[in-house]
TrEMBL record:
It holds the Pfam family ECF_trnsprt. The keyword Transmembrane helix applies. It comes from Caloramator australicus RC3. The keyword Kinase does not apply. Gene3D superfamilies: 1.10.1760.20. The chain crosses the membrane at residues 7-25, 31-48, 55-73, 85-108, 120-140, 146-172, 179-205. This is Substrate-specific component CbrT of predicted cobalamin ECF transporter. GO terms for molecular function: transmembrane transporter activity. Keywords: Membrane, Transmembrane, Transmembrane helix.
Length: 226
């Protein structure tokens, strides 16, 4: 099923690019539609993965935590535990599950903080964060707090760049290299605060989160041997 979904979305994506190019549709619309397709793609992977109810409960809990715990930190620019929660979810539950936690965290929290065109890009940014940490776990199976914390910090900047690109492409004209660099540089202070916050949350809580979630997953994994 995963191969079928991959093939189907590859064909749809190529066809979409050709259609958008033929009708000379703007770059902003092209990128927005691509972001929507990426989110749909991961939701389909999640749907056909056959996740049991126990793991689904954990995913729902982590998504709720990522959304709700963001709200009390709204008064502190870019400092919130959501990125850390998404990262630890992807690291322990898997890439697809981490993506779902990231998407839902943004969607839930913005019911309180305000929805807008930025919501899609927050969903995509945190979703990709979950995917990254799921891949990281496959590359480095043994948990290392130093490596985990470093990448948590880096994702403060990566997430910021994703949001910056949406702003630059959508609102800045003419679109030049200098405009892109200026757009990224303008949020450097806020991205740095995001990164520092991620590092602090990781140092304080990542050991406990990873240990608890790993134990939970192993507890409910059942292997049948013929």
């Amino acid at each position: 099923m995963k191969k079928l979904i991959n093939g189907l979305f590859f064909v749809i994506f190529i066809a979409l690019i050709l259609i958008l190019t033929y009708f000379n549709i703007g770059l902003n619309s092209t990128i927005t539609i691509s972001a929507v397709l990426i989110i749909i793609y991961f939701f389909l992977l999640f749907e056909f993965k056959g996740i049991d109810s126990k793991k689904l409960a954990v995913i729902s809990t982590m998504a709720a935590m990522g959304g709700v715990f963001r709200i009390p930190f709204a008064g502190v620019p870019n400092v919130q535990p959501t990125t850390f929660i998404v990262a630890v979810s992807g690291y322990t539950l898997g890439s697809v599950e981490g993506f779902i936690v990231g998407v839902l965290s943004a969607f839930i929290s913005n019911f309180f903080l305000g929805h807008g065109p930025w919501t899609l890009w927050q969903m995509l940014g945190w979703g990709l964060c979950g995917v990254f940490f799921g891949v990281l776990r496959k590359l480095i199976s043994n948990y290392n707090i130093v490596i985990f914390t470093i990448f948590c910090g880096l994702w403060g900047f990566i997430y910021g760049i994703i949001l910056d690109m949406w702003f630059v492409v959508g609102f800045i004209r003419p679109l030049t290299i200098n405009a892109v660099l200026l757009g990224v540089a303008s949020s450097l202070v806020f991205d740095s605060m995001h990164a520092i916050g991620n590092i602090i949350f990781s140092i304080l809580f990542s050991n406990k989160f990873v240990k608890i979630l790993d134990r939970f997953i192993k507890r409910f994994e059942v292997e049948y041997i013929d």
